[in-house]
Amino acid sequence: MSDTRLQIRDDRHDALSDSDFAVIHGFLSQTYWAGNIPAETQRRALEHSLCYRGYIDGALVAFARVVSDRATFAYLADVFVLPEQRGRGHARALVRAAMDDPRLQGLRRWHLVTRDMQTLYAGLGFEALSQPEYHMQRHDPDVYRRNDRNG
């Protein structure tokens, strides 16, 4: 009998396997936010992040990572659920696990960027920037494509 409950693991429990990395990179490299990300860049990003993985029957079906100084700030990134597993609360469970991680308690600010999942994150306590004019960014959306052509 199979276990259809989401099992969440993070970097405290076990290292990321090559097969899990292949799923993560394969998915993210096709997204609007990380399209064409080179595998080496993705691996470096994961190595410097707190990573949360969701499994059904031992297969990776969901992922999220947090970039943080572990004292004041966290940036939630790269949250995804494989299409065949969507609509089951897996993203919410994974983000909740990240937010409940003892290493990320007492932070003044959590931040994320999303084009289409505001409702999900609002249900977890996120809200639109109260003073967006105070926030700035330096954004280079074509960096992976440009580096791929030059590399």
Automatic annotation (TrEMBL):
Gene3D superfamilies: 3.40.630.30. One of its GO terms (molecular function) is acyltransferase activity, transferring groups other than amino-acyl groups. Keywords: Transferase. It comes from the Bacteria. The keyword Transferase applies. SUPFAM superfamilies: Acyl-CoA N-acyltransferases (Nat). It holds the Pfam family Acetyltransf_1. CDD domains: NAT_SF. InterPro entries: Acetyltransferase_Butenolide, Acyl_CoA_acyltransferase, GNAT_dom. Residues 6-150 form the N-acetyltransferase domain. The keyword Transmembrane helix does not apply. Signal peptide: none annotated. This is N-acetyltransferase. It comes from Lysobacter silvisoli.
